[in-house]
Amino acid sequence: MVMAHSRLYIKLMNSREWRLLRAQKLTDQPLCEMCWAKGYVRAAQCVHHIIEVESGRNEQECRDICYRYSNLQSLCYECHQEVHKARGSYKRDGHQQRENERLQRWIAKHGGKSEPPASL
Protein backbone atom coordinates (compact mmCIF):
# COMPACT_ATOMS: atom_id res chain seq x y z
CA MET A 1 0.00 0.00 0.00
CA VAL A 2 1.32 3.45 -0.90
CA MET A 3 1.51 6.08 1.82
CA ALA A 4 0.57 9.65 0.99
CA HIS A 5 2.82 12.09 2.80
CA SER A 6 3.04 15.85 2.88
CA ARG A 7 5.84 17.68 1.10
CA LEU A 8 7.26 18.63 4.49
CA TYR A 9 7.44 14.99 5.61
CA ILE A 10 9.21 14.00 2.40
CA LYS A 11 11.63 16.90 2.82
CA LEU A 12 12.44 15.88 6.41
CA MET A 13 12.88 12.20 5.52
CA ASN A 14 15.28 13.10 2.70
CA SER A 15 17.40 15.40 4.83
CA ARG A 16 21.00 14.72 5.79
CA GLU A 17 20.06 15.29 9.44
CA TRP A 18 17.49 12.45 9.29
CA ARG A 19 19.87 10.05 7.53
CA LEU A 20 22.52 10.65 10.21
CA LEU A 21 20.03 10.33 13.07
CA ARG A 22 18.56 7.14 11.57
CA ALA A 23 22.03 5.61 11.18
CA GLN A 24 22.88 6.55 14.77
CA LYS A 25 19.69 4.94 16.11
CA LEU A 26 20.36 1.70 14.22
CA THR A 27 23.96 1.70 15.48
CA ASP A 28 22.83 2.26 19.06
CA GLN A 29 19.95 -0.24 18.84
CA PRO A 30 20.51 -2.71 15.97
CA LEU A 31 17.76 -5.10 17.14
CA CYS A 32 14.01 -4.77 16.67
CA GLU A 33 12.68 -3.37 19.93
CA MET A 34 9.23 -4.98 19.54
CA CYS A 35 10.66 -8.42 18.83
CA TRP A 36 13.09 -8.03 21.74
CA ALA A 37 10.17 -7.23 24.06
CA LYS A 38 8.54 -10.51 22.93
CA GLY A 39 11.73 -12.48 23.57
CA TYR A 40 12.91 -12.70 19.94
CA VAL A 41 16.16 -11.52 18.43
CA ARG A 42 15.72 -9.93 15.01
CA ALA A 43 17.72 -7.25 13.24
CA ALA A 44 16.09 -3.85 12.86
CA GLN A 45 15.87 -2.35 9.37
CA CYS A 46 13.54 0.56 10.10
CA VAL A 47 13.55 3.52 12.42
CA HIS A 48 10.00 4.31 13.45
CA HIS A 49 8.67 7.60 14.81
CA ILE A 50 6.59 6.75 17.89
CA ILE A 51 4.76 10.07 17.61
CA GLU A 52 4.01 10.63 13.93
CA VAL A 53 6.03 13.42 12.33
CA GLU A 54 2.96 14.79 10.59
CA SER A 55 1.10 15.18 13.87
CA GLY A 56 2.93 18.47 14.47
CA ARG A 57 0.80 21.62 14.23
CA ASN A 58 3.36 23.49 12.17
CA GLU A 59 6.66 22.98 10.38
CA GLN A 60 8.78 23.53 13.51
CA GLU A 61 6.79 21.03 15.56
CA CYS A 62 7.02 18.46 12.76
CA ARG A 63 10.78 19.04 12.58
CA ASP A 64 11.12 18.68 16.37
CA ILE A 65 9.13 15.43 16.36
CA CYS A 66 11.13 14.08 13.43
CA TYR A 67 14.56 14.72 14.93
CA ARG A 68 13.79 13.87 18.58
CA TYR A 69 15.95 10.83 19.35
CA SER A 70 13.66 9.73 22.19
CA ASN A 71 10.81 9.52 19.66
CA LEU A 72 12.58 6.82 17.64
CA GLN A 73 12.21 3.06 17.78
CA SER A 74 14.31 0.47 15.93
CA LEU A 75 12.02 -2.06 14.24
CA CYS A 76 12.17 -4.91 11.73
CA TYR A 77 10.08 -4.55 8.55
CA GLU A 78 7.33 -6.82 9.87
CA CYS A 79 6.89 -4.96 13.18
CA HIS A 80 7.02 -1.60 11.40
CA GLN A 81 4.20 -2.68 9.10
CA GLU A 82 2.26 -4.08 12.08
CA VAL A 83 2.47 -0.75 13.92
CA HIS A 84 1.27 1.25 10.92
CA LYS A 85 -1.54 -1.17 10.12
CA ALA A 86 -2.75 -0.99 13.72
CA ARG A 87 -2.72 2.83 13.54
CA GLY A 88 -4.32 2.88 10.11
CA SER A 89 -1.55 5.22 9.04
CA TYR A 90 -0.95 3.44 5.74
CA LYS A 91 -4.39 4.53 4.63
CA ARG A 92 -4.58 7.59 2.42
CA ASP A 93 -7.62 8.96 4.25
CA GLY A 94 -5.64 9.01 7.52
CA HIS A 95 -3.10 11.35 5.93
CA GLN A 96 -5.84 13.46 4.36
CA GLN A 97 -7.52 13.81 7.75
CA ARG A 98 -4.26 15.04 9.34
CA GLU A 99 -3.78 17.49 6.45
CA ASN A 100 -7.31 18.82 6.99
CA GLU A 101 -6.71 19.17 10.73
CA ARG A 102 -3.52 21.17 10.09
CA LEU A 103 -5.39 23.37 7.63
CA GLN A 104 -8.19 24.01 10.12
CA ARG A 105 -5.66 24.96 12.81
CA TRP A 106 -3.99 27.34 10.35
CA ILE A 107 -7.33 28.93 9.44
CA ALA A 108 -8.24 29.31 13.13
CA LYS A 109 -4.89 30.94 13.85
CA HIS A 110 -4.92 33.32 10.87
CA GLY A 111 -8.65 33.92 10.59
CA GLY A 112 -8.69 32.60 7.04
CA LYS A 113 -7.41 35.95 5.72
CA SER A 114 -4.85 34.60 3.28
CA GLU A 115 -3.71 31.43 1.60
CA PRO A 116 -1.92 28.81 3.73
CA PRO A 117 1.79 28.22 3.08
CA ALA A 118 2.72 25.42 0.65
CA SER A 119 4.16 23.29 3.48
CA LEU A 120 0.71 22.54 4.90
Task: Describe, in plain words, how this protein is organized in 3D.
By secondary structure, this protein is mainly alpha-helical. The chain has one domain (7-92). It contains six helices and two strands; from the N terminus they run αααβαβαα. It has helices spanning 7-13, 16-28, 33-37, 59-67, 77-87, 92-110, and strands at residues 46-49, 72-75. A two-stranded antiparallel ribbon has the order 1-2. α1 (7-13) packs parallel to α4. The longest helix has 19 residues, at 92-110. It starts with 6 loop residues before the first helix and ends in a 10-residue tail after the last helix.
Shape: elongated
Q: Summarize the main sheet.
A: 2 strands, antiparallel
**Distance between the amino and carboxyl termini:** 23 Å
Number of strands: 2
Regions with pLDDT < 50 over 5+ consecutive residues?
A: none
Number of domains in the coordinates? 1
